[in-house]
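Chapter review: from sequence to fold.
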Amino acid sequence: MKKFLFLFLLSAFYFLLSTSARAQTDVDRVADLKRQIEELEKQAETYRNSIAQQQAEATSLKQEIGAIEAQIKNIQLQVKLTGIKIDKTKLEVGNVEKDIYDAQQKITAQQKGISQLIAFLNRQDNESLLSIVLKNENLSDFFKQAENSKDISKKLTELINDLKTQKQTLENQKNELEDKQQELENLNQQRSSQKSALGGTKTSKNQLLAQTKGQEAQYQKLLRDVEERKTKFFIELQKYESDIVAGGVYIVHVTAGKLPPRGTNLFRWPEEGYRITQGYGMTRYARRGAYGGAPHNGIDMASGYGSLIRAIGDGEIIANGANSGWGNWIAVKHPPINLVSVYGHMSALSPLKVGTQVKAGDIIGYEGATGNATGSHLHLSLYKDFFTYMKGTELYFNYFDGSVNPDDYM
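The token string follows.
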């Protein structure tokens, strides 16, 4: 019996030793990828700050082309960064799969050992005291056998407890695997969005050069035309919205309950590594008449084309659409107060359907530059009174009335 215990423990030792050696190699590889990611993220932050400054200062064709070229370099960096994150996550998925296999093997070995120990103890229990005494040559051997049985019972208890721990570990590893596989899927979607953005940004540069023929005068005329169209768009939109309110022709209408004091932390920010490019209210840009004389109805932030956009809080998707102003957008209602958050200019329509329940931090889209946008950014609005309506074939939501400053509840 001692020989059995020795072999059992020896095999377990080598099993753990081989697992540890394999795991250490993978840990080193993951650590190396993490270092690469950290370096690229620092570069990406530098690019983001540079792009924001260039966009703010771009008053000439040369400056605008420079800003677009900086965006192209940034997106190329983002594609590379996401690729390394994919490699790291694939390695982590493989590691978790190996850990699951190792845990299953260990559980099988433990179950076998437990069965053998139980069988041995059963045989001991079935022997009469007289037969045990007669089987041993002297009283000392008898007491040694009794002590061995006690040790085996103790070992059995340890194995059973360890088996329970291993089963819980296995369950945790399976949950971790699901999370890693979801993360991998999200990263693949993000890289696809970034590659699409790269092509789109290069096209924008070529179109700008074609429209202006490389001439500064043509560029300035183009800027004036864009500003005029934007102002006209918002003036017409506000008039149309007034008619909708007068007629009460809403598709969705949500009114929040009593709001907590400003400064109450209700939500998280929807992006990581973001830079605020325009605040809420009568900003300098709004005072120039950019929104038809109305204030800015949210916060603009930039984290890089294709960056993940996450729900700021738990809630339900209540609208998902696109229009000329906000491009691709989605709205989330947040119980119990029922404030509504809106995310605009996304690179593509969100795949989430109306009625989908989301948790704070769930991915709902990717940063883009669709609609009436100058450069890639996310527009975030927050409403205490929110409604949607159709304007032609496009889905809109109320502009400023009913909105609150998102920063008041972050």
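Two observations follow directly from the output. The chain is about 60% helix and 15% strand. Residues 215-409 form a domain with the Glucose Permease (Domain IIA) fold (CATH 2.70.70.10).
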